[in-house]
Amino acid sequence: MQNTYRIRARAEEYEITGSEAALQFLQELRAINQLRQISTTKAVGRGLSQSARATYDTGRQIFRDPVGAVKKVPQGASRFFGKVKDFVSQDDEDTDRKASVGETIRGVLGIDDQKRKLAARLGVDVYSHNQALQKELDRVASAMAGGGLALNIGTMPIGGAVGIGLTAIGIDQAVDSLINESSPDDLRKWNQQNLANLGAKPDVVAQFLSHPWYSPRQETIITAALKKTRVDPDLFLESAIKALTEEDGRYFQRVAQLLAAYSDRVAPLQSLYLEEGVLCALDRNGVLVVPVSFDYAIWTQTVAQRVEALARVVGSDQAIKSAKIWTDGKLSDRLKAELDRRSIAYESLRQS
Hints:
9 strands
C-alpha cells in the first residue's frame, strides 16, 4: 500500500518507503546542500570565544547574586567553563553523564534554540534520524548561537516538507510553533500532561514517550491529535508502542492525525476499538471509522479478508450501524466497487 522510491544523491542510492517519507527526505537533501554552502570555520572560533565570555560573566553573577543565578542557570553549568569547545565538537561523548553535560552546555549557549529555528526555516525535522543533516544543523547552529556567524535565517528559502503532514489532515499551525519553540523536556511535559488529562495510564504514557521510534516532534503531533479526539487514548498508545521501525512510527502518527481530522470534520468520536488487530474508532452516530494511511490501495486477498471481517463486525454488533474507511491515500476502482458491494463507505483526504 506504500510506494517505494529510489533516490540517488551523489554516489549514494537510498530506498524510501512512503510518499510523505520521500518528500521529507528530498527536503532534507535540499537543506543539507544549503547548509553546506555556509562557511563557519572562523565563525565557530569567534562564537566560542564570545560564549566563553558570557559564561565568565555568568560566573561573576553567581558571586554577586548566588540565589538569583542558580534560578537562571542549570545546576553545575559553571563547572564546564573552559570546556565549551569539547562539548560542542566531540561526537563520541557517549556516556550518560557526558551527554547530560553536553546538553546543559548547549542549552546555556542557545545552540538547541538556534537549531530548532534553523530546522523550522529549512522545513526539516530537528529530530530527524538523518545523521548528515544533524551534523550540518549542529555546525551552523553552534556558530549562530555563539554570535560568530551573523546569519539571518529569515532570508533563507522556506522549506515545507515537515509541515505537509500537519495542515493537510487537521493539525493546526499552533502545534508546529509549539514544537519549534519548545525544548524536548518542555514537549515531554506538555505531552504527559495532555495525555493524562485524556485519561491515559501513566505507565502506558511513559512507554510511549520513551519509545525509540517516536521523536519529540512525532510524540507532540500524536498527542495534539489525540487531544482533538477527546477519547481515552490508551488503546491507541498500546498499539503505537508496538512500532518496530521508523516507518511504523510514522504510520501511527498519520493514524492519529486521521482520527483528529475525522473528529474535526465529520463527527465527534466516542471510543476507540480494536477489530481484528486493526485500530478503529466509533463515532457518536454509530459509524465504525477505520483510519488507515497508505499511498495507493488495491484489491488483494489480504485486503479482501480485512474487508470481510469488517462487514461481519457491522452485522454482529448492535452499537455499530455502519463502517467507513477513512484514509489519506487513493483507492483503486476495484477496491471501491468491492467496498460498495458490502455497503462499506470510504473517503480519502487526498484531493487528487
